[in-house]
Amino acid sequence: MNTTISIGLCFVLSLLNSIAFSQSIVGSWQLVNESTCVDDNLTPDEETEDVLNDMKAMSKPSTQVLVLKDNNTGDESTRIISKKKSYNSKGFLYRYSTSTLYFLDKRSKTIIEGFNVEKISADSLIISNTARVCETKVFVRIK
User: For the chain, which domains are there?
Assistant: First the structure.
């Protein structure tokens, strides 16, 4: 009888431990770093560096925030996830598993983008595009 109780207690404690250490993706995330495939394909020289710096300087100075809500909906302050012209809404649906994050269009419920979750912690989220592995986005939690 004691063995059964101790096995059950170990199971409950391990379950509680996994729940306590699993990170929620729900919240507000600010984009702090982004690497593109262009960065990886160019060889580092002075001209290339100048072009990349000019391109980064042309980007909007406003903060880019991604808000993921409990009900699997989300909003983005600017186009962070998909820059496709056909996708004109800043609202979307998402689906999250332990290793993959899918963004869906609100109307058609089709997948807009898919990302591998490289790292998720209490204060950071790193994702890479499933179609273009060289495209990585780094977020920090702001709420």
Answer: 25-141 (2.40.128.280)
